[in-house]
Amino acid sequence: MASRKRIYDTEFREGAVRIVTETGKPIPEVAEDLGIHPGTLHSWVSRARRTGSPSSDRPVAEPSPGGRVRERERAELERLRTEAREKDKRIRELERERDVCKRFVALWVK
User: Fold this and answer.
1) Which helix (H) or strand (E) holds 20?
2) Which site among 47, 51, 70, 80 is 20 to 30 Å from 16 CA-CA?
3) Mean per-residue pLDDT for 95-102?
4) In sequence order, what DSSP letters do the residues of 39-98 get, joined into one string?
5) What span, in angstroms and rounded, lies between the C-alpha atoms of 28 and 11?
6) Is-contact 12 19, C-beta < 8 A?
7) pLDDT in the model for residue 6
8) Model confidence over 8-34: pLDDT tens digits?
């Protein structure tokens, strides 16, 4: 049986990618809801993360002239990375505390 290649417009692709990125739902679940193959949606999401657009392999925003990052941008990027590392550390700490509380409650209930 021959398969038909469906063509999706740009708005549909962007909407599907937006659902995955904004809601955090798994790609297979969103793909099933939209009636598309999970591999197709996965490629759109990865392309959008890489280039900024699910429809094009070219980056949406062109890099600064010469491909160099300005010092101000570099400082901002480093600040954001540091902030993200601190937040990840705090999340891991809170998850450990949550797990301890769960164990305590399980023992207390018995």
Assistant:
1) helix 10-23
2) 80
3) 94
4) HHHHHHHHHHHHHS-SS-SS-SSPPPGGGPPPHHHHHHHHHHHHHHHHHHHHHHHHHHHH
5) 20
6) no
7) 80
8) 888 888 889 999 988 888 999 999 999
